[in-house]
Amino acid sequence: MAEVLVYVDHVDGAVRKPTLELLTLARRIGDPVAVALGAGAANTAATLAEHGAVKVLTDEAAEYADYLVVPKVDALQAAVEAVSAAGSLAAVLVPSSAEAKEIAARLALRIGSGVITDAVDVEADDKGPVATQSVFAASYSTKTRVSKGTPVITVKPNSAPVEAAPAAGTVEALSVTFSAQATGTKVTGRTPRESTGRPELTEAAIVVSGGRGVNGSENFSIIEALADSLGAAVGASRAAVDAGWYPHTNQVGQTGKSVSPQLYIANGISGAIQHRAGMQTSKTIVAVNKDAEAPIFDLVDYGVVGDLFEVVPQLTEEIKTRKG
Ligand code: FAD
Predict the structure, then answer these.
(1) Are both 215 and 105 inside the same structural domain?
(2) Domain housing 40
(3) How far apart are CA 152 and CA 128, in angstroms?
(4) For residue 256, is it within any domain?
(5) pLDDT digits (tens, 9 = 90+) for 175-194
(6) What separation in Å is there between the alpha carbon of 300 and the centre of ligand 1?
(7) Is 213 one of the annotated binding-site residues?
(8) Is the CB of 294 under 6 A from ligand 1?
(9) How far is CA 258 from CA 198, 204, 207, 252, 304, in A?
(10) From ligand 1's centre to the CA of 306, what distance in Å?
(11) Is 160 found in the same domain as 223?
(12) SMART domains attached here (predicted)?
């Protein structure tokens, strides 16, 4: 069976959920071989093995943290060459984070193949891997394949379930020779973002968003309370962000983040095309809006016509009561 390289996104050995989702997709195409780089890379092996990695290639060189993406591209190229030399490589799967997308594009160029970004599904037919993308503000779904070389595919978070699939997860050291460009751009400092204790917006299984209808930064506390009752991330429309009510890092949409959670709850958001572009692939969409004609109701699974200041606190209380 062909092998599929999976680039591991981890923090000091703790594997992030989108990587486990990639392993689910990788198993549909071939045998997943994970590539974990940087401090703690070897510690990822047990988790990766539990989710289907037959092999884990690791390298803990300091260069991965000290410089921008090129050392990681060098390492993935080395992994592509090693796996291709030993057998056949069907695809390279990479999470759709900003950094990983840059790595994917550079890697595809290096290995003379093509890159497909922001896939929401990956499967294989008799000609090889086929990626599904959601395009034109999620109005259309397209199927795409790379016609030359090994496809490099970035996959959006929440595109596949995390599945337990125990495999060997044999750890092997990856031998990497860094290119002349690897040390070109040095990282001089990192400022950790203040933690809210909530999940990362693009990775969250549930997102609760507020728009202009929330009518002030102080009122976002009711959106946060609903989010916290569900263990959700908080999102915001551009109108709410432009008004200074919520940080830009939480903006959902064309010029914000693209989310694809199991459940998206839009509160006081009209459903403009630019907002839809960032949330339309959510599995279940709920909206609370006092205007029954609001366009958001065209795409919801469940809609509540009502004042969010009445509906949202009641919903939060009900969820808390049911959770006990
Ligand atoms: P509005 O459209 O004003 O809607 C507010 C809604 O709240 C209304 O439907 C109203 O009925 C409802 N409401 C009011 N009070 C209550 C209440 N008490 N209870 C219940 N409902 C209530 N927008 C984004 O969101 N993300 C983007 O990334 C983005 N990128 C853009 C890029 C470009 C190039 C452009 C031109 C625009 C972009 N926009 C983006 C802006 C987008 O066009 C809309 O202006 C924006 O999404 C509107 O935000 P909103 O739905 O919160 O506000």
Answers:
(1) no
(2) 3-183
(3) 12
(4) yes
(5) 999 999 999 999 999 988 88
(6) 16
(7) no
(8) yes
(9) 17, 11, 11, 6, 24
(10) 17
(11) no
(12) ETF
